[in-house]
């Protein structure tokens, strides 16, 4: 069997799911004996590669950058996994949905509306609502939790690897 090409991505979330991946400890070493990590915020990859077998996506869709990344991952990946509650249901990122993006910008960035130049062009505009991953791309599996238990990640990955 050829080595599995594994990717992880962090959209609009807190990185807690990636901390759970690191908390696999020896299980992470075991996993990396089966897989090549080809994209992840845990390493300095600049572009999402082609022909990825499994991608774990943490975080919700809150802006155009998140949406474009999710679509890129789906296009180049056999099995896409929603990792954690933000990817599955929006969770913490979606707490802004009832008040809307304007309320968030006013609260978090008081000068945003008066002087958007302060934030520069590198800050992506927020969507009106935060969406879970499966509402914008097809998702093949879900690993719930905030953050997910490391053992749940390990078991799910081994099952996905067996299916390839």
What do you see in this structure?
The chain has 164 residues and is α/β, with parallel strands linked by helices. The chain has a single domain, classed as Rossmann fold (3-Layer(aba) Sandwich), CATH 3.40.50. Helix content is 35%, strand content 23%. It has 6 helices and 7 strands, in the order E-H-H-E-E-E-H-E-H-H-E-E-H. It has a 5-stranded parallel beta sheet, sandwiched between helices. A two-stranded antiparallel sheet has the order 4-6.
Topology:
Layout: E1 4-10, H1 16-22, H2 26-34, E2 35-39, E3 52-58, E4 61-63, H3 64-76, E5 77-83, H4 85-89, H5 100-108, E6 126-131, E7 141-143, H6 150-163
Parallel strand pairs: 1-2, 1-3, 3-5, 5-7
Antiparallel strand pairs: 4-6
Q: Give the H and E element order.
A: EHHEEEHEHHEEH
Radius of gyration: 17 Å
CATH architecture level-2 label: 3-Layer(aba) Sandwich
Give the uncertain stretches in residue-range form: none
Largest beta sheet: strand ordering: 2-1-3-5-7
Termini separation comes to 10 Å
The percent range for helix content is 25-40%
Query: From the helix content, strand content and strand pairing, which structural class follows?
Result: alpha/beta
CATH topology: Rossmann fold
The counted number of beta strands is 7
Task: Please state roughly what percent of the residues sit in beta strands, choosing from under 5%, 5-15%, 15-25%, 25-35%, 35-45% or over 45%.
Answer: 15-25%
User: Sheet bearing the most strands, described?
Assistant: 5 strands, parallel
Query: Please, what is the CATH homologous superfamily?
Result: NADH:ubiquinone oxidoreductase-like, 20kDa subunit
Q: Write down the overall geometry.
A: globular
| Count of DSSP H/I helices | 6
Tally of structural domains = 1
């Amino acid at each position: 069997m050829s080595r599995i090409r594994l990717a992880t991505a962090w959209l609009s979330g807190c990185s807690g799911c990636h901390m759970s991946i690191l908390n696999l400890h020896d299980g992470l070493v075991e996993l990396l004996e089966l897989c090549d990590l080809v994209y992840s915020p845990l390493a300095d990859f600049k572009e999402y590669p082609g022909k990825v077998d499994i991608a774990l996506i943490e975080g919700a869709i809150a802006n155009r950058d998140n949406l474009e990344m999710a679509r890129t991952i789906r296009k180049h990946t056999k099995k896409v996994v929603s990792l954690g509650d933000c990817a599955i249901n929006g969770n913490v990122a979606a707490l802004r949905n009832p008040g809307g993006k304007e309320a968030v910008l006013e609260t978090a960035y008081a000068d945003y509306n008066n002087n958007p130049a302060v934030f520069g062009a590198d800050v992506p505009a927020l969507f009106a609502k935060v969406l879970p991953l499966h509402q914008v791309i097809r998702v093949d599996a879900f690993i719930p939790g905030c953050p997910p238990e490391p053992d749940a990640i390990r078991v799910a990955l081994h099952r996905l690897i067996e299916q390839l």
